[in-house]
Amino acid sequence: MECKAEKIAESCPCTWMSCSKRGRCCDCIAYHRSRNELPACYFSPEAERTYDRSFKNFAKDKGLI
Q1: Rounded distance, CA 11 to CA 63, Å?
Q2: Quick check: 15 pLDDT over 90?
Q3: Which Pfam families match (predicted)?
Q4: Residue 28: how many CB atoms within 10 A of its CB?
């Protein structure tokens, strides 16, 4: 499957504008998964801006802890 970054980048919620994976969902998910993290699209805009992609921050953002 081929990533279609040019179509996805416009709606990508990641605020790390210089990231080479921004808008390339398949690359982004693989990268964060390898680091036991979640990508920006899982977080609220406020939590995303912290750049803390941990599962713990995700649970905190969603009110689970």
Answers
A1: 25
A2: yes
A3: DUF6485 (PF20095)
A4: 22
Residue 31's alpha-carbon distances to 6, 10, 22, 23, 37, in angstroms, are: 19, 20, 11, 13, 9
Tokens of 47: 């939590």
Nearest to residue 8, comparing CAs of 30, 21, 24?
24
3-class SS shares of the chain: helix, strand, coil, % to 5? 50, 0, 50
CB contact set of 3 (below 8 Å; sequence gap of 6+): 24, 25, 26, 27
| Between 38 and 8, the higher pLDDT residue | 38
